[in-house]
Structure formats: C-alpha cells, structure tokens
Amino acid sequence: MEREPGLKWLFFDLNSYFASVEQQERPELRGKPIAVVPMQTNSTCAIAASYEAKAYGVKTGTMIYEAKKMCPGLICIPARHDVYVDYHNRIIQEVIKHTPINKIWSIDELSSRLPPNKRTLERSAEVSKNIKEGIWQNIGKHISCSIGVAPNSLLAKIASNMQKPNGLTILRQEDLPGPLLALRLTDLTGIGKNMEKRLNRAGISSIEQLWNTSPKQARKIWGGVQGERFWYWLHGYDFDPPETNNVMIGHSRILDPKLRHENEARTMARRLLVKATYRLRRKEYYAGALNLSVRTCAGYRWANEARFPAAHDPFTFLQHLDDLWGGMLTDFIPGPPLRFKKVSVILHHLRKDGQITHDILDSGYKEKIVDLEKREALASALDKLQNKYQKETVWLGTTPKTIGGYVGTKISFSRVPEKEEFWG
What gap in Å lies between CA 306 and CA 291, rounded to an integer? Predict the structure, then answer.
C-alpha cells in the first residue's frame, strides 16, 4: 500500500454528456434547456439535462411532467444511443493522445494513471489543458469536461466533481484534507443517502469527523473491509481494489405503450434475449441459467429462472424463455388481461469453454451433444453473416418497432454498448 507524494491519477468526466452531444449536433438547441428522454411521453424521466435545464432544477431522473412545470420551455429530445457511443469512441481516441487510459468507468467517465513524468502539479495541469483543448478542436466546441487530479483514483473522481462545468481541480497529498472539508459527506463518491445515515448514527456528520476516524472504525461503520479501503483512499493511499468478474449479461426494456400487450411483450423479451446472446458469444462466455422478470402496468412483479447445461446459442435460450413465459402466464391467470410495463432477461452462471463439464453418465448424453453441436453451428453461421455485412441479415422471429429505434441497446451507468449492438 503506497502513500507517496505525487499526483498519480487523472479522472475525466464529461459534462451533461448526452445533452451536450445533442447541442453539438444540432445548433438550434444550443443555449436552450433540453432534456434527453427514452421516449416522447410525459410519464418518462430525463436521462440527461443540459445546463440550461439544470438551472431550473431539472436533472437526471426528473419526471418529465414535473420537469415541464419547472421549466415551461423545456425541449425533450429522444435519446440517440448510437450517436453517443460514436462520440464516446472519438473522445477516447483524443484522450489517449495525451495520457494512457486505465479504465473506462462509463460512457462519460474514465481514469488515467499518469506516467511518472507527468505527476507534478505543472505537468498534470498541462495534460488536463491539452485534453480539454483537443476535445474542443477535434470533437466539438460544445463538448466540455471536468477533470480531477489526485494521488489516487477515488480522490481524483471526487476532485472532478468539485468544479462543474469545464473545471479542473488538483488535490495534492500535502494539502489534504483542507480542500475536502467544505464538501458534504454525500459529495464523496461511494457515500449515498443510506451510507450517510449510517455515518450519522456513528456520530459522523462532516468530512472532518470522517477524516479523524480510524481504519477499524470505518470498517465497523461500513460493515466490512470496504470501509477500511475507503479510509485509506480518502487519506491519499494508492492501491487497486479487488478485481470483479463479469457475472451476468442481460437486457431490460420499459415498453412503449403500443408494445404492452402480451404478444408484443413476449416478442420484445425474445428480442432482448437474442441481443444478450450475441453479447455473450462475443465475450466467449457460456451461460447456465436464464432469468425472466416482468412488471405489469398494474404494478405486479414476477420473476423466475431456468437452469440448464451451459450453452451460448440463442435457440437453447429461446426455448427456456418460452417455458418461463408460459409459467408466468399460468401464475397470473385467472385475472384481468395483462398489460406489461417492463420486461427483463438475464443470462448468468457464466463460464468459459474450458470450465464446462458434461454429465457423461446421462443416458441421452450423446444425443444432447449432437443437438448442441447443430445449434452451435447454426448460431456461428448467423454470427458470420452479421460480421460480414455489419448488420443483422437474418432475424430470429420478428423485431418490435420501438419509438427509440433500438431493442435492448441502451447506455447504462456501468456499460458502454459495442457498435455491433446497434446493428439491425
């Protein structure tokens, strides 16, 4: 565990990213309050807001019917995830001209472990300035970022939030905790409302009080080793967190109003599963379980899972999805006609090819292997067609027509879609 002087980490955070891209692409939106939305309805929420809209209190998660009351002139723009991913990829290429990228945290955040020759105050500030200017010159003048530089990645991320938009904050080891003392507990990455309550119950209501705790006390408050890690990060120590494995792949969808009947919702679930299967295959994983969950417009929820010998062809998964869907309908009947608000499919129990063992004592072992090989060969043929033509040329079933234009492909807080996911 290191606590050496020097500015080792740079954290890069794009400002109001989706909204800024829309303003870059469409000059008529510049200087106006806009909200990026998943669909054009007042019952949805903003997934991004421009700074002009934020001035009225509109932010990510604000319901649109409330946002329009706050800001009567609000312009709602349907999200274009493929455009945001394209800009993301171009921005990544710009950043790596100036510093290596260690981790892409989300569509609009990344961190860089600065090379040894760029860890001084002057050189790290120069790198940050060059990144900002490179984006303005090569990506667009309406795309801005805030950058934090610090001894470790947690402090760098905290610093990136201290001046927005278009800020640069540098936290030096020798200045700590001074610049942090004016912040609230919830301004620290990793401390949400629930964690704040736990800290308050332990008699901690300020950054200064948190700073003056001990590692053991932090571990007790957090209820585990993460609290001790947080204490050391906050105090400027630099070490890597334990690696986590990819444990599941899935898609979920809030259904457009026209897709909420049973047949259309089932078609959407099947399509989401095919999309998830393509991602699974690209990562060279097999899955041994499938989870289906639904939420109805009446507020009822249902979820169940199927387990099976590890596979990664869509035909196996679709068969199990149909079985789960039939079981779900049986559980809901008798009752009023179902209208579905959300469907989700998740593939889990993931493993690589070398981690799979088959039950050779199964009486139908040989027949199952032959059937699996046939399905795999057909799935591989579909993959080759998709890769050759850079789009889906053969569909399994029908493709729902959505308002947003994409099925399953959207940007989450922790995952940036690959360009292949927009093929269709």
Answer: 7
User: Positive or negative, the Cα torsion across 232, 237, 243, 244?
Assistant: positive
Q: Over the stretch 182-227, which tens digit does the pLDDT of each residue have? A: 999 999 999 999 999 999 999 999 999 999 999 999 999 999 999 9
Q: What is the DSSP letter of 346?
A: E
Q: What distance in Å separates the CA atoms of residue 113 and residue 104, rounded to the nearest whole number? A: 12
The closest alpha carbon to 187, from 203, 164, 168, 166, belongs to: 164
- Segment holding 19, helix H or strand E: helix 17-25
Q: Is 366 within the bounds of a domain?
A: no
The answer to whether 46 and 35 have CB atoms below 8 angstroms apart is yes
Nearest-angstrom CA–CA distance, 257 and 43 = 11
Strands in 38-174 per DSSP E: 48-49, 75-78, 103-106, 109-113, 145-150, 168-170
d(CA 387, CA 381): 10
Long-range contacts of 51-56 (CB under 8 A, 24+ apart): 51/15, 51/16, 51/19, 51/165, 53/19, 54/16
- Please give the angle made by the CA atoms of 31, 129 and 83, to the nearest 5 degrees: 50
CATH code for the domain in which residue 216 is found? 1.10.150.20
Neighbours of 122 (CB within 10 A): 8
pLDDT tens-digit series, residues 288-317: 999 999 999 988 999 999 998 888 888 899
Question: Residues 282, 198: one domain?
Answer: no
Question: How long, in residues, is the chain?
Answer: 424
pTM: 0.70
What are the φ and ψ backbone dihedral angles of 140, each rounded to 5 degrees?
A: 165, 145
* Residue appearing with tokens 């649109």: 64
User: CA-CA distance, 213 to 198, in Å (whole number)?
Assistant: 14
Residue 381 domain-assigned? no
- Considering the domain boundaries, does residue 377 fall inside one? no
Phi-psi region of 130 (alpha: psi -120 to 50; beta: other; left: phi over 0): alpha
Boundaries of domain holding 406: 248-357+388-422
